[in-house]
Amino acid sequence: MTDLDALKEEVFRANTELVRLGLVTGTWGNASAVDRSRGIVVIKPSGVDYASMAPGDMAVVDLDGREVGPGLRPSSDTATHLELYRAFEGIGGVVHTHSPYATMFAQASREIPCLGTTHADHFRGAVPVTRFLSEEEVRGEYERETGRLIVERFRGLDPLATPGVLVAGHAPFAWGAHAAAAVENSLVLERVAQLALGTLGLDPGIGALPEYIQEKHYRRKHGPDAYYGQGKTPPS
């Protein structure tokens, strides 16, 4: 198996995992991965049903969006993925879904506040929401402008610490070190959105989890002082 074949297999598995986890309906979603050493991105082909896909069907483009070799046409969201890869150097995989709870927050143009430790374990602070695209941006290169919109929203934020975003009126995007990590972050994003919606229903006036608890839970799993899991020594 060549390196490209392996990357196609990785992306194929990421896309089918979105279906297994219930994060996509129909063809409403896509996953991709980048090989930065070769300057290529592998992504789900546009409009192809997940049940009929095979690893060899995955589309390949360069970082400028040019299709590499023969094959199926890449996802219509490819330009958004490319903007994220160009701007967020530490990521290796991107996922876009219309998962129900996260999409509810996106449609409400409302960030997902950090209300509990489940959220804090994975996302540092609230999951941000973008502004709406302008009419001019929508009439232009819509998918590329969507990517630029996300990058704009992350000015001053660490995309590795908060590996997901809600595009206002649209849906979530998530990313990670590789395609499987992006899928995992997409799943966590959906679950914390579900928990937040339920919590806000019980107490609409609830505030965010205290900052010191958020930081404790985030740093248990991330960064140089992380000790969650095997082989790491907890503080005495």
Short descriptors:
236 residues, alpha+beta, 6-stranded antiparallel beta sheet, 8 helices
Kindly state the percentage of residues in helix. Answer: 25-40%
Tally of strands:
6
- Could you tell me the strand content as a percent range? 5-15%
Low-confidence stretches: none
Characterization of this structure:
This protein is an alpha+beta fold and 236 residues long. 39% of the residues lie in helices and 12% in strands. It contains 8 helices and 6 strands. The chain has helices spanning 3-20, 78-87, 100-107, 117-120, 135-139, 142-153, 179-202, 211-221; strands spanning 29-35, 40-43, 59-62, 93-97, 164-166, 172-176.
Please summarize what this structure is.
The protein is of the alpha+beta class and 236 residues long. Helix content is 39%, strand content 12%. Helix 1 packs parallel to helix 7, helix 2 runs parallel beside helix 6 (142-153) and helix 3 (100-107) packs across helix 7.
